[in-house]
From TrEMBL, chains A, B:
GO molecular function, one term: DNA-binding transcription factor activity
Record-given protein name: Putative HTH-type transcriptional regulator YurK
Gene name of this polypeptide: yurK
Domain HTH gntR-type: 6-74
Keyword entries, A-Z: DNA-binding, Transcription, Transcription regulation
Keyword Acyltransferase: no
Pfam families cross-referenced by the UniProt entry: GntR, UTRA
Signal peptide start and end residues: none
Length: 233, 233
DNA sequence: AAGTGGTCTAGACCACCTG
DNA sequence: AGGTGGTCTAGACCACTTT
């Protein structure tokens, strides 16, 4: 009756992590086998396995059959970025969100879009421009292209009230995407939309989205001056 | 003898994912219980549990005791960003990496740094400036501050050859960090270092690092014009 | 009170890798 | 050839949440 709790996989995981952080097991060092750790912690091997599997997912340890488990020598740090809708980003800042459609037209896909999305140039696409505001201040400008063949419903969809990002999220909820971030200088149009000086440095996110290998949409979001995207790891 | 393979947790995971993608189970819909799925797939409940746990980690489904498992209504997409060293980023581009220390001095922490890192202003810190090159072209400028108390060895470390990021990665391998990304206009000094026009739009990453709740370092990396950070989800 | 997911166990077999 | 992690099983008990 001395131990109030049983050893769970989280206990094993945290203790192993502690030993790595405090260099009981240094970088590159070989850990005991699962069976040995199970004996030490007084639990089943499956419990140790789950604990170590989580640490391996985090990149803290490397596991190989026969070789055993080692502390990762030079861990590659990974940050998780939440790709949220403009509405969410604005409301997280306790501001009032507003959306406005700027333009909407069907057109043939230009060449650069074809290579971006892996689309045959000349394919009919829906091109939207829109603005997103927080408390009346420009938040970001959206330049959106949608592959009509992949999402036929978009031809009839009304984007006057609902942002295309939110519409697509409901229509094609589980898609894959390439995303890239860069800095760009405001041209005349962006300066106008975002109420900044031409040439101002703006943070920009571009995203190409696929669903089951079919290109769905390409979006370029250009944020107001001073915008910061944050994350943690 | 009809089935060549056994049903593994990956089979279950993929089949459930397929049913969600094809809207067999629509957004918000309730899935069968683990026990029911185990019967259907002809495997143990633990196998189903692991499959569903992975999908829950991805944010595809929401699980609650008693309520059961539901398809996430509005999934929050997450991108994984690899925070790599400059050397890695450059060599990934098949370019030759070069590093140069620009300045190095001990000083009292300025106020803005104190609030950034959660450090008492006036604490002695090591301030480094350095450049990283790819094939001789400016890659990024590094403005680095290290809390000497947290990493005593840095006072004697030679940063003439080894970049502080790599040195710290070996010294404090398992740290936590806040990271933020923004766009900034080149000032005179940055324009000089990065060989661009003053006012050019530059991509910038800032990172504050802790180890076991103690502030370790703050780094501001300013990249050459046109730099793109990429990811995928 | 009852239903559902969360976790653990003890044992087993397999797949992969290294010597 | 043998050691190590990867996975599955069948059963059990627990924890949380809703009714």
């Amino acid at each position: 009756m001395q131990q109030p709790k049983k050893t769970g996989f989280q206990d094993v995981r945290d203790e192993v992590m502690r030993r790595i952080e405090t260099r009981v097991w240094d970088q590159g060092a070989l850990l005991p086998t699962e069976a040995e750790l199970a004996t030490e912690f007084g639990c089943a091997r499956a419990t140790v396995n789950r604990a170590l599997r989580e640490l391996a997912d985090r990149g803290v340890i490397d596991r190989k059959r026969k070789s055993g488990t080692r502390v990762t020598a030079l861990p590659v740090k990974q940050a998780k970025l939440e790709i949220a809708t403009a509405r969410r980003l604005v409301e997280e800042r306790n501001a009032t969100y507003r959306y406005a459609l700027v333009s909407r037209r069907m057109q043939a896909a230009p060449g650069w879009l074809g290579s971006q999305m892996g689309l045959t140039p000349g394919t009919e696409v829906l091109h939207l421009e829109a603005m997103h505001y927080g408390d009346g201040q420009p938040f970001h400008f959206e330049d959106r292209w949608i592959n009509i063949a992949a999402v036929p419903g978009c031809a009839e969809a009304d984007f006057a009230l609902k942002p295309p990002g939110e519409w697509l999220l409901a229509e094609v909820p589980f898609s894959n995407a390439d995303v890239s971030f860069t800095a760009t200088a405001a041209d005349a149009a962006l300066a106008d939309y975002l109420a900044c000086a031409p040439g101002a440095a703006l943070f920009q996110m571009e995203r190409s989205t696929w669903f089951q290998d079919a290109p769905v949409t390409f979006a370029r979001m250009t944020f107001h001056p001073g915008y910061r995207m944050r994350s943690r790891y």
